[in-house]
Amino acid sequence: MRTSIFVLLVVSLGAVLTALAGGNSLRALEGDEQVIRKAIADYTDALNKADVAAIAAFWTPDAEFTDESGTVYKGRDAIMSLFTRGLTDAKAAKYTITVNSLRLPAPSVALVEATVDSTASDSAMDMGRVSAVWVKQNGKWMVTSARDLPDDNGSSSASGAKTVQELGWLVGEWGSDNPAKAIKIVARFVLDKHYLMMDYSIPQPDGTTVTVVQMLGYDPATEQLASWTFDSRGGNGSGVWSRNGNVWTGEVEGVLADGRSGSGKLRIKFIDNQSFVYESTDREVDGQPIADATVKYTRKTQ
Please, are residues 46 and 55 in contact by the beta-carbon 8 Å criterion? Predict the structure, then answer.
């Protein structure tokens, strides 16, 4: 069950981002992407170390926080007490933060909405949505109010956004751990974050490289996560996916460039923010079984 610790984590990250902006327009953030990404990574490390004192410094003394039940906590001390309890209850959970929107409507005001994924020590995963407001006081950006957001509003579009954003931890560049077959993956959100695009570069024994493009997104017809795949040889496929804890499983089928049909089961298994395992099992081509394959990937860049 989502806990209020999500919002407490993410609003503090937002304060780091807006401090970097220094009250300038969003274009300033976009022009300094490397600095921002480094700040996100550094602050996520601080969150995962449960450094409450460092986090508290980003809240105004009179800040307010509203949790998902509507309970309001007034003042930095009350919020930090809640934060401390949340970190204790989380039992060494690790967090991944995806900033969905960052706006500066006025020189001294910043608005952030974001998604926080948590992975507990038993590998169970959870996700929450949050929003917060910052103000610039004495040259420093600080959180003045924050609240949990509902998981969705009952509409298929909200449900779809949540489904895709749960894979936000995949965004970045990855490389396989097998030096004999150095597969590269680059993942990014596209089309207003309705889809996650994954570009695969797969070296071949003859020195060529096969490129595969896979789109993951919410299918309103099935009300499930779906995938659509295309390769540089002319093959294509599709699949329907489900999630169980830290594992996403896809039942996929498609056609090769020569017209043969194929099917199989794919699994994306989250290990931590720096690694995941991609499994391909139960594979067949024209009814003939194909050996299973397992590849571990390590993050190269975020």
Answer: yes
So what's the pLDDT on residue 24? 44
**pTM beyond 0.85:** no
At 21, list the tokens: 């902006």
Average pLDDT, the chain: 77
Q: Is 278 helix (H, G, I), strand (E, B) or coil?
A: strand
Q: Is the pLDDT of residue 32 over 50?
A: no
Give CA–CA dist 112/97, Å, rounded: 12
What domains appear along the chain, each with residue ranges and CATH number? 5-151 (3.10.450.50), 168-301 (2.40.128.20)
CA angle (302, 148, 126) in 5-degree steps: 55
Whether residue 237 is predicted with pLDDT greater than 70 in this model: the reply is yes
Q: How far apart are CA 43 and CA 20, in angstroms?
A: 13
Residues 128 and 147: their CA atoms lie apart, in Å, by: 11
Lowest mean pLDDT among 99-108, 125-134, 290-299: 99-108
Asked if 95 contacts 9 with a C-beta cutoff of 8 angstroms, the reply is yes
- C-alpha–C-alpha distance, residues 137 and 74, integer Å: 18
**Of 27, 4, 15, residue with least CA distance to 80:** 4
